Amino acid sequence: MTATRSSFYRDLTLQLDVIGALVLRELHTRFGRNNIGYLWMVGEPLMLATVIGALHAFQPGHIGSTMPPVAFSLVGYCVFIIFRGIFNRAESILESSLPLMYHRMISVLNLSLARVVVEAAGCVTTFVLLYTIIILLGFAEPPARPLWAIGGVAGMIWISFAWGLNVTAVTFEKPTLQRLVHPISYFMMPLSGAFFAVEWLPVYIQNAADWFPLVNIFEITRYGMFETASDKHLFPGYLIANCAIFTYTGLIGIRRVRNRIHLH
């Protein structure tokens, strides 16, 4: 029993070391060391999110909502770009990293996890920085229910990772499908709930929206961030089940893809 536990911890430590090395490689490949270097991981989403927040700085509440418009739009955009970044880059994971498949310790899952870490770290850091700034400027209040907010962001990271695994598996060596990934992510923006609350919709649309995991994630996140947010459309159990199912299918998919990779 002790030997088995020791072997497990040793293997886990080794995998974490591999993922850490892949994270550093991803940072260096994408951002380099010139100019601001790795800080660009935060700088790029920071600029885009700042523009979105500024556009809503002098607008009244949305459709009579008491949620502050700047904070509302900032939460929506910063959480959505977690999905967009992870989902969009899932289709290029294997093609850009095929030489690494020579190494026995590196798996498709390692590559996926490394990209998730980079994307999520940049977006979450941006979110924390900007939200702190708008609190200091008086455009928002501190999160009303922090654990719910953290759960919503964690849910977005998880489902983006799960869907990304499936994208990696389905699009490998299929250029036509790869080109569809980016348009799909942009199509998701107006449907995701990033910029609307379910309670604003007609009842018959609310029932349909409740089945979409991304909408559920934004409802959970806003419930955590805003005191006045509604709790009528929170389904964490459904979200967890959704994430678990897609993670399972994604893991099966990338395992099959690994057997189709031919190194020359």
Structure characterization notes:
The structure is a single chain. This protein has 264 residues and is mainly alpha-helical. It has one domain (2-260). 72% of the residues lie in helices and 0% in strands. The chain has ten helices and no strands. It has helices spanning 2-31, 40-55, 69-89, 93-97, 108-136, 146-171, 175-191, 203-209, 213-225, 236-260. Helix 2 crosses helix 3 and helix 3 (69-89) packs antiparallel against helix 7 (175-191). The chain starts with a helix and ends with a helix. It is a multi-pass membrane protein. Belongs to the ABC-2 integral membrane protein family.
List its salient traits:
72% helix; globular; mainly alpha; 264 residues; membrane; ABC-type transporter activity; transmembrane helix; ABC_2_transport
Major sheet description? none
> What multimeric state do the chains show?
single chain
Order of helices and strands: HHHHHHHHHH
Output the radius of gyration. Answer: 20 Å
Low-confidence blocks of residues: none
How many structural domains in the coordinates?
1
Total helical segments:
10
Number of beta-strand segments: 0
Describe the SSE topology.
Blueprint: H1 2-31, H2 40-55, H3 69-89, H4 93-97, H5 108-136, H6 146-171, H7 175-191, H8 203-209, H9 213-225, H10 236-260
Provide a short characterization of the protein structure:
This is Capsular polysaccharide transport system permease protein. Pfam families: ABC2_membrane (PF01061). This protein has 264 residues and is an all-alpha fold.
